[in-house]
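Go through this chain.

——
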Amino acid sequence: MTPGYVAVVGPGTAGERERAHARRVGELLALRGAVVVCGGLGGVMEAACEGARAHGGVTVGLLPGRERAEGNPFLTVCLPTGLGELRNGLVVAAADAVIAVGGSWGTLSEVALAMRTGRPTVVLGGWDVAADAGDGVPLRASSPEEAVRAVADALPNGRGRPAAES
């Protein structure tokens, strides 16, 4: 089976707890064979990539600027877009599911885009989002393990499950 692509989104300036959660999410996704997609910069994005790469995972960063050198050092693939914050839509569109770790305005935009486009979305910390427009609400998780398990269960055709379970 093809592994899923999971966007890990969150603040570029993150606290140690957010970074630790993002690092663990990246590790767990890599162990399940998922490709980590992110905005390619620091904070949550860098920590998720660091965790994934430490376990042989593939990481893809869609950068806001035009220079590959802006990307964090844990990216496998570094794609400059020149789109600034608009690249958030590309991050969501490239993913089968989204895990938000922590919250910032950019993170909120990614959660909103994920919900509007029907991507399974899990929030770990950060924004508490309620919706009344019929788009539903993202799932809440209390740990990185719970967040990754929720995404794996939501991916079609068993994508995101550990290789031993496939």
